[in-house]
Each structure stands twice: as structure tokens, then as C-alpha cells.
Amino acid sequence: MGMTVGVVGLGTMGAGIAQVCLEAGHAVVGVDGAAEARERGLETVRRGLERRVEKGQLDAAARDRALARLATAEDVAGLADCDLVIEAIAEVPAAKHALFAALAAATRPDVILATNTSAISVTGIAEASGRPGRVVGLHFFNPAPVMPLVEVVRTAHVEEAAYATAIAFAEGLGKEAVPCPDTPGFIVNRILVPMLNDAVRALAETGVEPADMDRALKAGAGWPMGPLALIDLIGVDVQVHASEAIAAGLDDDRYAPHKLLLELMAEGRLGRKTGRGFHDYGRP
Ligand SMILES: NC(=O)c1ccc[n+]([C@@H]2O[C@H](COP(=O)([O-])OP(=O)(O)OC[C@H]3O[C@@H](n4cnc5c(N)ncnc54)[C@H](O)[C@@H]3O)[C@@H](O)[C@H]2O)c1
Fold it and tell me: Which of 1, 117, 171, 226 would suit a FRET pair with 25, their CA atoms being 20 to 30 Å apart?
């Protein structure tokens, strides 16, 4: 039975999450701060569905039905009928806290409010909402339509029924729903973020060529993609912020971003999205 899902923030993650929800048969209401960002997000969803059709994974009629279930709204007032809302705005604690308080005021009391945060405390977000029993983390991976994992983050406040619904919802999207406690970086980033920082440290200290490092990890450790190409895909800025958040959350400088990452960020070399990071992609 399809639900009505609100997606707040139609950037990289929000657009992908909206596409996944539409493909699973849900109706989606997308909200973004700026009209331009909303239009860009819609275009990303359309392109994503089109790609499925081109690959033979979706027929044209299913694409049309999915698009007919997609609506947008200017702000959270448009989410009053939602059964579940997934937040995917910028990784800024104060912005998420303010948004969750607004979401709690704008939605039905039985709605589930989910954050896609990578490294901000879900417990803090839940408390800021004033409705902590209904808040979970639904941590999708990039690109959301492709990556199978969703970490379903449990806080001490969450109601059992709400948590069980969140697990069932993620499974219903065809995802691998993995329960995890609300600790910095959850499961994957707690391990992956410091591993990627170590790759950057090795790059800086050894002088190995970036392409050679990536080839070595692919051929020698079975990584589907080298660590530097992976940082370029994730975004250098995202890796920096995730590292800083985990370092702060665990109060351990060992997790702090390597200075080479900070230098790339200062130069605007953020990876694929700017056309250049550790590797050169030509145009973004
Ligand atoms: N990019 C990734 O690899 C990745 C992976 C997993 C989780 N995340 C998390 O997902 C979230 C979104 O990341 P992203 O990479 O999609 O960011 P993004 O910058 O691509 O998109 C964020 C969108 O949110 C909008 N926005 C910002 N503040 C808003 C507000 N108050 N109300 C409505 N819209 C607002 C922006 O206009 C933008 O369109 C972050 O919390 C991030 O940590 C990112």
C-alpha cells in the first residue's frame, strides 16, 4: 500500500530518495528552499526514472505513473498529509533542528520523521522536534537509487512501532535495512571515513600517484572503486564534514580530516561535482 512521503531538500540525496520512493509505489511531495533547487531536483528525478527506462528496468507506463505521483511544495506546510517525511537538507545541526521543530508543527501526530544525516546526532534532532518518539534516522547512501543499504538509526526515545514501521518502509523500498544505534558515523561511515582519511594520509606521505593508489586498492583489496575516486564521488567537502563530525562526536582527533583534504576544499576542488578533486573529470 503506497504511502505519502515528504522529502525535504531535493539535492543529491533528496532527489535520489524521491526517485526510490516513487519506484516503490509511494506518492512523494518534494520540498526545497529555493524554486530553482526544486526545479533542479525534479529534473534529477525525471532523469533518474528515464535512465531506468533506458536500461529496461522500468517500463514507460510505470515511469508515467511514478511521475504522476510526484508533487512539490514551497515549504513544510505542504507536508500535512504525509505518512513519513525524510529530511535531506544541508548537514548543519542548527538547520536540521529548526526544520524538525517546523516539521512536527506542520505534520500529523502519527507521522514518522526521518533524517538522512550522515553524522549529526539523531537523538539531538529528535529532541529538537519536540516529538522524539516519532523520529528515526534513515541513512541512504549515494547514489540512493543504486546503493542497497539504508542504516535505520534508533535513538533511546523512539517508539517501537515507529521504529518497526521505519524498518519495514526501508525494506519496502527494496533496500537492505540495517538497524544501528545512534553513534557518530553509524556503522559504515564510522569505518569508511577514517579509512578514506588514511588513504589521503598515505597519498601525502608516500608520493604514490592517485591513479596508482586507486588501481592498487581495486586490484589488491577488491574495492569496486579506489579510495580517492570514492572521495571524489562523495565530495571532498562531504568527507571533510563527516570527518569533523565524527571527530567531534567521539572527541578524538584521530578522526579529523587530513590537511590535504582541507587544501583541496579551499581550492574548490570538491571532486566530480566541480570537475576536479584528486582526479580530473573535465567538466562537472
Ligand atoms: N551526498 C552524500 O553522499 C550523502 C550520503 C548520505 C547522506 N547524506 C546527507 O544527506 C543530506 C543532504 O546531502 P546532499 O549531499 O544531498 O546535499 P545537497 O547540498 O546536494 O542538497 C541539499 C538540498 O537541501 C536544500 N535545503 C537546504 N536547507 C533547506 C531547508 N532549510 N529547507 C528546505 N531545503 C533546504 C538545498 O537547497 C539543497 O537543494 C545531508 O545531511 C548529508 O549529510 C549525504
Answer: 117
C-alpha cell at 1: 500500500
What are the cell numbers at 245? Answer: 563530525
Q: Which fold has domain 4-181?
A: Rossmann fold (3.40.50)
Q: How far apart are CA 31 and CA 2, in angstroms?
A: 19
Distance CA 273, CA 275 (A): 6
* Selected catalytic residue, list 26, 121, 129, 151: 151
pTM of this structure: 0.91
* pLDDT tens-place string over residues 208-267: 999 999 999 999 999 999 999 999 998 999 899 989 989 999 999 999 999 999 999 999
- Residue 93 CA, ligand 1 centroid: distance in Å: 12
Report the topology of domain 189-274. N-(1-d-carboxylethyl)-l-norvaline Dehydrogenase; domain 2 (1.10.1040)
Q: What does the domain layout of the chain look like in residue ranges?
A: 4-181, 189-274
CA of 117 to the centre of ligand 1 (A): 9
Q: pLDDT per residue over 127-143, tens digit each?
A: 999 999 999 999 999 89
